[in-house]
Amino acid sequence: MLTTETAVMLANYGNWADQVLFKAMAELPEDAIYRTRQTLFGSMIGTLNHNYVVDLIWRAHLLGEKHGFSTRRDLLHPELGALIREQTAINHWYVDWARSQNVESLSERLKFTFVSGKAAEMTRGGMFLHIVNHKTYHRGWVSEMFFDSNVNPPETDLCVFLCEDVAPA
């Protein structure tokens, strides 16, 4: 069972991991961020825009609102600085959202519709765990792309976050 404390920790972890990745990306040659690659979302910036779009979609699901997306591949922020600003803002929304939850609200089942049009139902906690897991997965894709520039990617693992005592209290 997901608790408020764990949800807040995971929301803070997600923001921390994004910031670590963004900082490392800013040190790459600019073409590395935008270079077309053989990957589903085309580039580092495309993959991170996918994360952002999915965060928007699931926020709408959590709020019981329509998200208005027909694809998860929209390139809403093609410039890294704008994407960082917008991703950080939604990350903070998720931290605040997690703080406002309790065991009962996290256990509540919500109906929603996938972008594909398929109807589904999940608990709020399950939705949130998907959001955290989804972004971790795709940060891994971006980290792999660092090797194309002969640069080691940053460490964004949950254990690093927890062991470096960077987790906010």
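the 2nd protein, sequnce then structure:
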Amino acid sequence: MTGMRTAKIMTGLAIAGALATPASAAAVTAELVVKNYADIALAKYQDSLTTAKALEDSVDALIADPSAETLQAAKDAWLASRVPYQQTEAYRFGNAIVDDWEGRVNAWPLDEGLIDYVDGSYGTESDENNLYAANVIANEKVTINGEEVDATEITPEFLSGTLHEADEVEANVATGYHAIEFLLWGQDLNGTGEGAGSRPWTDFSTSECTNGHCDRRAEYLSAAADLLVSDLEEMVANWEEGGDARKEVTADPTAGLSTILTGMGSLSYGELAGERMKLGLLLHDPEEEHDCFSDNTDKSHLYDAVGIRNVYLGSYERIDGSVVSGPSVSDLVSVKDADLDAELKAKLQTTLDAMTVMSERADTVEAYDQMIGEGNEEGNAVVQAAIDGLVDQTRSIERIVALLELDAIEFEGSDSLDAPGAVFQ
């Protein structure tokens, strides 16, 4: 199923790329480019909301009638929801409103012992996190910042206002896609071996309950799914006409171009190539895998790369197959330096080709966490090729910043790329 989605989006990108260039590139202005950028943001977040609502419905169905089939349907809905959402991540790093909000929906990694039962190998305490194994599903009282907190009712308000990043610890991720992912799949205890999480459907059954507290587990899952929907509704509103994010990026078109390129470069380099990929490859550590419970990491990385490309081309294929397209950064660059525009387009394609190879390998040979395993030379090389593509395209993005005479932009960095030795200290 995931492989089919990959093929579909790559085909759609070829079409979208063809539609991305207006009749007269010379007539393209920064104002038109940032407006189209905002229009695409709205479409992406609308699609993310639509798929989150489908996930919410599937969670409701699972809770109403727990079975292997309804659990799988909820997993499938979660996987589908990641496709449009990951394409929004190129809107991070430059847009402050998105950055301030993003931790509520896509924060990772998480200390899953905060939420639910974990395997004994997980341990019971951490020097960095007093709530490392708090297991709020099993306990109606938890201690936060030295005070006892009533967790009798697990509501969206409790998750977002009390539990998420409790004790000011970033690993206390109580909300968003990855909290839901953990509740659907459970821990992946396979290391760099074959297999994802394997939570039984009976964990949500009140009549055939396994691992205890099945009613509270269902309550937590329902609250997290509801909260994801409301958070995405908020972001959709931010990009609608008159929304704060749209107003901010379009108020000064030149600054808006800097925002666009900051997002592209920072996601390409420090975040995706560095923190999400190279760090795990250096450490050969599956705990550094982005979608670590579901083994969906290869798809998440692929759609991040797709998102970077469609921001540059000013074109996005929606989940219904329609295309939102208009004036783009590519158009501005092509007028000033057609060779540089062609260079970045080629590099974006090279990265997507490498990501597609990685994704197809995940579908046919081994999962991403196996690819980064120590001693897996072939798998390591496949991941490294995608990293190399991301780093290389960032160099061209830097040149575009200079070409457009924008103020200096500092892209996000990563020790894994800039000072690999520091990773092992």
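The first strand starts at residue 141 and ends at 144. The chain has one domain: 2-110+173-420.
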